[in-house]
Q: What sequence folds into this?
């Protein structure tokens, strides 16, 4: 049983007589357990001395920095003054270590309007210094979650993550820096505040990364901390960082800020709402007027000077940054040249990844369509230890991510192909849907690749939609690699593959996935099968060695052979590898690309090892339909010794699985001729009259 000291602070109230709070922040000292709410008069944010004060429980309350009690247990202390005693409770450790598939990340429930409502009340002067707070919306993170420290832009409120609180709060211990409107702490003083927190966190958990998220001005702050602490494992995330302040389009206007008359200054927020490039702000002009209160004239003058010193200080030390860096760059940022700055940072920093959002403005964290946690996951930046592990660091897709993937990302493909799923029960009966697939893992799906792997998206999403099962697909490392040759890479389909569970195909990843009882999707034919030549549709190119059978038997996994057809109904392959190698210049490009790519099979393993990578030339057709048939499950439970020690038994099972896949393909090629809705036109009419596209009937199995 762990001792818990917990309190929630009602951070502010409505300015009228109503006592209903608009939002809350949590102030807590926790080893494990829940939080308890307290009235505002019992716990309040304070501007007391920063020298530190030890309460009767031995907890240091100083700038929201964690300290250790004499027992060595880790606690969390936030800079608050407690006007009354805090109840102690003994509770069980109920912190979860896993997230359910299609969990609720809350994205879309908050808007920029909520930010203005929070900020309006949080800016009330309290005479206090900069401090950390944890929004109650973040909730309780998963066990062993890394810390994320958010440093705000010039507003200093610290609430710019309001759209992302619930999502980030599941997988991070989120703390936001609040810089009061009347505070005049110089830039190096702010650096010291953040740095002290980082160093104490590192001392407490030296093997976990610390995430520093900086928005605009905050980007300068977190980069400066990273430059001063190269020995600490940091992941730095920059949202349109203000390191480009000296090249700002508004630079000529800043010297005039001190001369602005009071009446004219009240119009500045409306000008900024247009300049920031965010249509949401323009639509919220009544709220935008509050910007004049959030950043008063004298505060703006001070912060512009602060920003200038911040950019200068950080740029002079940027060469010392060793941290892993992710830059989010907006295409419609009219305050800063964020696109050019992202490229400069990428070339200046040793480990920098850029994602470009062409339709977003300067306030990217407050704009719709950019789910920060999705970007972190898709770029492979979420981890619990020194290196990112595709298996153990995986965060399952949320419901909002699934809906976007299903409706937007591959919505047209789903509409055009109208995937029909069939499976086989234990008694051998073929049924519509996925009812024949085992619920419990480990399960290994083994089947054929269609051209360019077009069937993979439909398969993974249908398992999520119908069975709420997360299928982890193993993919060629080149597919999941970073696109170094692209100067301004957008958040791409490759990133979404990582969000939806794809992992590089390696023996160790397959081992780890099966060991945690996952549902795993494996294509033994690999790149050779997905990039097949003309006339090779539905032909298997499998290796000679039955290694996946032996791996499955080691964990007693259930192997489900499956076949899929339909590529010849949506496109015709007109330029294959052999054709393209006859074209000058193009053939040289293919040779170079193939030589530089990662090779996961050697030439001794036959035709499947021929993995020359190229983009097939396709001629689209009026779409037909994709069909999937999952065969009768084959259990390896209890056969470990038989298969691992006797290669002949393993080979016999391997050939049986291959034969089953070929049988599934032959069955579908024959039965699809009986489908009255094989053509997209017929399916469209049926949908208009009867049901959604996933309910369009097919042939009777």
A:
């Amino acid at each position: 049983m762990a001792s818990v000291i917990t309190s929630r602070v009602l951070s502010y109230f409505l300015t009228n007589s109503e006592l209903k709070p608009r939002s809350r922040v949590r102030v807590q000292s926790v080893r494990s357990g829940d939080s308890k709410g307290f009235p505002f008069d019992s716990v309040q944010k304070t501007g007391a001395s920063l020298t530190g004060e030890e309460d009767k429980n031995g907890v240091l309350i100083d700038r929201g920095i964690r300290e250790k009690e004499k027992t060595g247990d880790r606690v969390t202390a936030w800079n608050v003054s407690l006007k009354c005693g805090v109840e102690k409770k003994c509770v069980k450790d109920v912190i979860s270590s896993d997230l359910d598939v299609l969990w609720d990340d809350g994205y879309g429930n908050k808007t920029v309007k909520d930010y203005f409502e929070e900020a309006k009340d949080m800016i009330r002067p309290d005479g206090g210094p900069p401090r950390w707070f944890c929004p109650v919306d973040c909730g309780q993170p998963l066990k062993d979650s890394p810390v994320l420290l958010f440093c705000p832009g010039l507003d200093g409120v610290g609430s710019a993550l309001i759209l992302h609180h619930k999502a980030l709060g599941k997988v991070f211990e989120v703390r936001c820096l609040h810089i009061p409107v009347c505070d005049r702490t110089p830039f190096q003083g702010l650096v010291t505040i953040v740095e002290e927190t980082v160093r104490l966190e590192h001392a407490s958990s030296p093997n976990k990364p610390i995430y520093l998220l900086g928005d605009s001005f905050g980007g300068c702050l977190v980069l400066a901390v990273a430059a001063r602490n190269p020995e600490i494992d940091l992941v730095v995330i920059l949202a349109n960082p203000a390191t480009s302040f000296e090249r700002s389009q508004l630079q000529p206007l800043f010297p005039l800020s001190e001369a602005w008359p009071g009446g004219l200054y009240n119009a500045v927020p409306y000008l900024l709402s247009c300049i920031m490039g965010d249509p949401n702000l323009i639509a919220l002009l009544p709220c935008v007027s509050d910007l004049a209160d959030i950043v008063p004239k004298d505060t703006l003058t001070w912060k512009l000077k602060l920003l200038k010193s911040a950019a200068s200080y950080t740029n002079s030390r940027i060469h010392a940054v060793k941290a892993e860096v992710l830059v989010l760059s907006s295409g419609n940022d009219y305050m800063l040249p964020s696109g050019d700055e992202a490229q400069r940072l990428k070339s200046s920093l040793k480990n920098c990844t850029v994602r470009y959002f062409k339709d977003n403005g300067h306030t990217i964290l407050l704009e719709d369509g950019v789910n920060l946690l999705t970007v972190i996951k898709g770029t492979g930046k979420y981890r619990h230890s020194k290196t990112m592990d595709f298996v153990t660091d995986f965060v399952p897709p949320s419901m909002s991510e699934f809906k976007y993937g299903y409706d937007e990302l591959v919505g047209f493909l789903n509409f055009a192909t109208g995937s029909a799923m069939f499976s086989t029960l234990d008694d051998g009966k073929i049924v519509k849907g996925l009812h024949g697939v085992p619920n419990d893992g480990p399960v290994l799906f083994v089947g054929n690749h269609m051209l360019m792997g077009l069937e993979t998206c439909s398969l993974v999403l249908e398992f999520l939609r119908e069975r709420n099962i997360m299928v982890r697909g193993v993919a060629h490392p080149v597919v999941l690699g970073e696109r170094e040759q692209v100067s301004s890479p957008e958040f791409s389909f490759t990133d979404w593959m990582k969000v939806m569970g794809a992992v590089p195909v390696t023996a160790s990843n397959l081992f780890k996935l099966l060991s945690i009882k996952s549902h795993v999707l494996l294509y033994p034919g690999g790149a050779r099968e997905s990039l097949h030549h003309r006339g090779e549709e539905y032909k298997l190119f499998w290796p000679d060695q039955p290694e996946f059978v032996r791996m499955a038997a080691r964990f007693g996994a259930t192997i489900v052979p499956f076949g899929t057809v339909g590529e010849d109904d949506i496109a015709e392959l007109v330029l294959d590898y052999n054709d393209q190698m006859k074209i000058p210049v193009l053939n040289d490009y293919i040779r170079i690309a193939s030589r530089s790519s990662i090779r996961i099979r050697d030439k001794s393993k036959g035709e499947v090892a021929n993995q020359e990578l190229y983009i097939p030339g396709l001629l689209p057709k009026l779409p037909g339909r994709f069909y999937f048939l999952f065969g009768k499950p084959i259990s390896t439970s209890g056969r470990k010794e038989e298969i691992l020690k006797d290669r002949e038994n393993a080979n016999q099972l391997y050939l049986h699985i291959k034969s089953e896949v070929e049988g599934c393909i032959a069955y579908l090629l024959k039965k699809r001729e009986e489908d009255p809705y094989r053509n997209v036109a017929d399916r469209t009419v049926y949908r208009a009259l009867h049901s959604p596209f996933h309910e369009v009937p097919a042939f009777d199995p």
Remarks:
- Confidence is low (pLDDT under 50) at residues 1-94, 273-277.
- The radius of gyration is 28 Å.
- The chain has 25 helices and 25 strands.
